[in-house]
TrEMBL record:
Residues 132-231 bind DNA. One of its GO terms (molecular function) is transcription cis-regulatory region binding. CDD domains: trans_reg_C. Residues 4-117 form the Response regulatory domain. The keyword DNA-binding applies. Keywords: DNA-binding, Phosphoprotein, Transcription, Transcription regulation, Two-component regulatory system. It comes from Paenibacillus azoreducens. Its main location: cytoplasm. This is DNA-binding response regulator.
Length: 240
């Protein structure tokens, strides 16, 4: 299926370079030179993936991602000269699905774009006939068609990776998953032992689903082992 990628960066050389490589791979490309223009395109056109720089006029990349995550569901790749761990943690914590530092190989960017598009949209292109449309645990209902979570009937928007992480845990309530298992299932890449990506995503999910994120009831940490979703009876007990 034909896909459209938005590149939001105020450096014309970078935009033109990425556009050349992405279009060579059969992708359509839209360009924005600042965060405000990028948001206007995202609201008015169908965009399948966004590549976002952090340092942009009008709206910076972080501000743009915060707005996008409230309104839209699409994969976001940050591409930035900021290369400190803190910058990556902030970007992933706000909802980005990947972080690439400048200078970069355009072939690597293309590969990561294609990987995100496959992971995000392949389940829509090849639905399993026998798959149930929902996973329900306690007051939570995860809709596999729209990739939206409902908590006590209230809709909770999820990013692509948040959906995949939550589905993994909710499909087996009570089962403990290690960081390695979670990372390799959600990102389909080999796990790096000191990588904190899983921790960041777990923290973001808790902010969305827990009544008190600092005292989680549903998304539990099992010290030294990993994470698990609460069992049905635990969810019922916590709602009483």
């Amino acid at each position: 299926m034909h896909k459209t990628v938005l590149i939001a960066d105020d450096e014309p050389d970078i935009v033109n370079l990425l556009k050349l490589y992405l279009e060579t791979e059969g992708l359509s490309v839209r360009e924005a030179w600042d965060g405000k223009a990028a948001m206007e395109i995202l609201r008015s056109e169908h965009i399948d993936l966004a590549i976002v720089d952090i340092m942009m006029p009008e709206l910076n990349g972080y501000q743009l991602i915060k707005i996008v995550r409230k309104e839209l569901k699409l994969p976001i790749i940050i591409i930035s000269a900021k290369n400190q761990d803190a910058d990556k943690i902030v970007g992933l914590g706000l909802g980005a699905d990947d972080f690439i530092t400048k200078p970069f190989s355009p072939l690597e960017v293309v590969a990561r774009v294609q990987a995100q598009l496959r992971r995000t949209y392949e389940f829509n292109d090849h639905p399993a006939a026998e798959e149930t449309p929902f996973t329900r645990v306690g007051a939570f209902e995860l809709d596999h068609h729209s990739c939206v979570l409902y908590k006590r009937g209230e809709q909770v928007a999820l990013s692509a990776n948040e959906y995949k992480l939550l589905r993994l845990l909710m499909d087996s309530p009570g089962r403990i998953f290690t960081k390695k298992q979670i990372f390799e299932h959600v990102w389909s890449e080999p796990y790096i032992a000191d990588d904190n990506t899983v921790m960041v995503q777990i923290s973001r999910l808790r902010e969305k689903i827990e009544d008190q994120p600092r005292n989680p009831v549903y998304l539990k940490t099992i010290r030294g082992l990993g994470y698990r979703f609460a069992k049905e009876e635990e969810c019922r007990d916590s709602s009483q």
